[in-house]
């Protein structure tokens, strides 16, 4: 182990990174709250400001993946589609298998300049989580309760609000609804058998209702005055994205924090949105077929160690690193002054208070990391799948 790798594995380095992320994140959240009056004056300006503020938070995690751990991301795609990435709105369909697949999705967004405006369909509880959840609230993320009778209307209404969004965005969608585990896969395949659907080896059955509502509300079939003013309002394509890691690695967020390097392979197909059927039953059948194809891509990867398509170079951009260095300077300088004062004063009370703060930062970050761990994922796919898979 080299000296640099040794330093990356040390708890003190982790504590510093956690401190920078938590404190800068709370500062950004506070600035976002200050933008509330601006929404009444100019919604589009407020949106643009919040896109940049969201980037300040999300890009720190991307920097940890790309610059701290040195994880490499290889993109397999059609070279003819590549020039369109980042220049149009898209629904990105991702497989939900790894603890850091969301981070790889963000890295994909970062390399094409849409990280700050990227969207997801998230469970409502996340809206109350400091930093990420609050950031998402101001970014107009679509939250749901995972109760379809209640979600259908609210999700559709929130998606409609994105029709006049002022900048290009990608809507990241995990159609499986929950992260893949062997137990959830077993339950999901029992549902497939009961509904006479082809079984999948590497995925859970996709939940078609959420996909259908998302596509229909972002399709842009109706033309409004706002859409005429903002051409960004129409979603142009589906980016079918399939992720895997070389050497059968199972990456974790803790591994990234320890500076462990992984190599991700991502296969992306651009599918024009008009090719997705507008009828709900036909759209559901289309999505099931898409996941059968995704399963085939994963099988090819398992056998050949690569996805189909050409390898396209997507170099990492320096902005995530610059952003992290900026916030490090902003929040670490006063911390350094405080530590110097504590050491010079010799007060046991102030030193004890500093220890408590450091412990709180450590526990807070560990709790946030724990939310990504597979063995702590929700039971949503186990309990809900037999009753409401579609």
From TrEMBL:
GO cellular component labels: endoplasmic reticulum membrane; mitochondrial outer membrane
Pathway, per record: Lipid metabolism; Phospholipid metabolism; CDP-diacylglycerol biosynthesis; CDP-diacylglycerol from sn-glycerol 3-phosphate: step 2/3
GO molecular function: 1-acylglycerol-3-phosphate O-acyltransferase activity
Name under which the protein is recorded: 1-acyl-sn-glycerol-3-phosphate acyltransferase delta
GO biological process: phospholipid biosynthetic process
EC class name: transferase
Domain Phospholipid/glycerol acyltransferase: 90-212
Function (record text): Converts 1-acyl-sn-glycerol-3-phosphate (lysophosphatidic acid or LPA) into 1,2-diacyl-sn-glycerol-3-phosphate (phosphatidic acid or PA) by incorporating an acyl moiety at the sn-2 position of the glycerol backbone. Exhibits high acyl-CoA specificity for polyunsaturated fatty acyl-CoA, especially docosahexaenoyl-CoA (22:6-CoA, DHA-CoA).
Keyword Lipid biosynthesis: yes
UniProt record similarity statement: Belongs to the 1-acyl-sn-glycerol-3-phosphate acyltransferase family.
Keyword terms of this UniProt record: Acyltransferase, Endoplasmic reticulum, Lipid biosynthesis, Lipid metabolism, Membrane, Phospholipid biosynthesis, Phospholipid metabolism, Transferase, Transmembrane, Transmembrane helix
Pfam families in the cross-refs: Acyltransf_C (PF16076), Acyltransferase (PF01553)
Chief location: endoplasmic reticulum
Keyword Endoplasmic reticulum: yes
Catalytic activity, EC: 2.3.1.51
SUPFAM superfamilies: Glycerol-3-phosphate (1)-acyltransferase (SSF69593)
Record's catalysed reaction(s): 1-octadecanoyl-sn-glycero-3-phosphate + (4Z,7Z,10Z,13Z,16Z,19Z)-docosahexaenoyl-CoA = 1-octadecanoyl-2-(4Z,7Z,10Z,13Z,16Z,19Z-docosahexaenoyl)-sn-glycero-3-phosphate + CoA; (4Z,7Z,10Z,13Z,16Z,19Z)-docosahexaenoyl-CoA + 1-hexadecanoyl-sn-glycero-3-phosphate = 1-hexadecanoyl-2-(4Z,7Z,10Z,13Z,16Z,19Z-docosahexaenoyl)-sn-glycero-3-phosphate + CoA; a 1-acyl-sn-glycero-3-phosphate + an acyl-CoA = a 1,2-diacyl-sn-glycero-3-phosphate + CoA; 1-octadecanoyl-sn-glycero-3-phosphate + (9Z,12Z)-octadecadienoyl-CoA = 1-octadecanoyl-2-(9Z,12Z-octadecadienoyl)-sn-glycero-3-phosphate + CoA
Superkingdom of the source species: Eukaryota
Subcellular location: Endoplasmic reticulum membrane
Membrane topology, record value: Multi-pass membrane protein
UniProt source species: Gambusia affinis (Western mosquitofish)
Bilayer-crossing regions: 20-41, 324-343, 349-369
